[in-house]
Design goal:
mainly beta; Lipocalin; elongated
């Protein structure tokens, strides 16, 4: 398979850099951090700022009622290999809404769905320039626990990704249609009440036998800070 979106290198640190370099290239589709707010009531505002394989992922979420939540997620990256002039840049924004319940104690069940769009720009000296336009539909059920000190959740996110690419030959258009991926992730947060450190890891797995015209990042890893405002700890 000809790889249309390739670039080597990248500027990450620690474990994220190690996972990132397990791939010989940077793919066109890089899954962003999964936003799992774990609301327990209305009028809670939550914000994440994380970094990892997907770059920088700012996220916000707000509980409109005792059971309805909304969210806006984004992902940005700008990585350059100075020795080869190869680069990878992307910008992606999505919005969603969903339903949550806090049936008993610290247990939270939630499900969100939404749509996002963005663009990827890459250059690799052996393959030329590729500009990819990304549209994605997502659905993410989660089960989690939350208290003053520790949060944990499991989210098997289902996404449908559509990527269109015009490379250095403007007459050649690559169109794949929406392709399904399952992205099981685990999220952990540790801190106290309103500010916690979080880490998340998971996988992005194609669900069909389609021969993709672009590379996909199979690993998910991020870390950062999570803040909660307006929560009554706990009910």
């Amino acid at each position: 398979m000809k790889r249309l979106f390739l670039i080597r290198g990248g500027r990450l640190t620690g474990f994220a850099a190690f996972i990132y370099l397990l791939n010989s290239c940077v793919p066109a589709y890089i899954p962003n951090t999964v936003n799992t707010p774990l609301f327990t009531g209305k009028h809670e505002l939550q914000a994440n700022i994380g970094t990892g394989i997907s770059g920088w992922d700012p996220q916000v979420a707000f509980s409109v009622t005792n059971h309805i939540g909304i969210m806006v997620n984004s992902s940005f990256a700008n990585r350059t290999n100075d020795s080869t002039d190869n680069y990878h840049r992307h910008a992606f924004v999505e919005g969603g809404a969903g339903y949550f319940i806090n049936p008993v104690g610290i247990l939270v069940l939630e499900a969100y769905g939404g749509f996002g769009a963005g663009k990827v720009e890459t250059y690799y000296k052996n393959y030329g320039t590729a500009n990819a336009y990304i549209n994605r539909i997502f659905f993410q059920p989660s089960v989690g626990v939350t208290n003053k000190v520790f949060d944990a959740s499991f989210t098997p996110r289902l996404v449908f990704v559509n990527i269109e690419n015009v490379n250095d030959d403007p007459t050649k258009l690559y169109h794949t249609g929406y392709r399904p991926f399952i992205e099981p992730t685990f999220t952990f947060r540790v801190g106290y009440k309103y500010v916690k450190f979080f880490t998340q890891f998971g996988f992005s797995i194609p669900m069909d036998n389609y021969t993709y015209s672009y590379d996909c990042q199979p690993f998910m890893f991020s870390m950062g800070l999570h803040a909660t405002f307006g929560r009554k700890y706990l009910k």
